[in-house]
Amino acid sequence: QVQLVESGGGLVQPGGSLRLSCAASGRLFSFSVMGWYRQAPGKQRELVATINGGGTSTYADLAKGRFTISRDNLKNTVYLQMNGLKPEDTALYYCNMRNPVTRADYWGQGTQVTVSS
Asked: In this structure, what is the dihedral angle of CA atoms 87, 47, 75, 29, given to the nearest 10 degrees?
């Protein structure tokens, strides 16, 4: 059974930074592609960034140059460092794990990020 628990969201002023964390249970973490997605009110969920077990990362255009995804396989944790936050970054941020064998997706409950002055 996979459980993903996000933390680190909150209220931040424009231009500020936040670091999101996602702690995963289970034995598949180090083999799984981990991702961060976000969903703003009235909008579809969108990809922010992914990172594979070896540490290779990909970013959506919205994240390039501002966000950094990383992981610690010993702690079963993936991070999203967000700098230069903008009001349009306001959303519920979700952690995702993809099972490397079945390709099933697992989701956390989300952590709210609000960027406002």
From this structure: 170
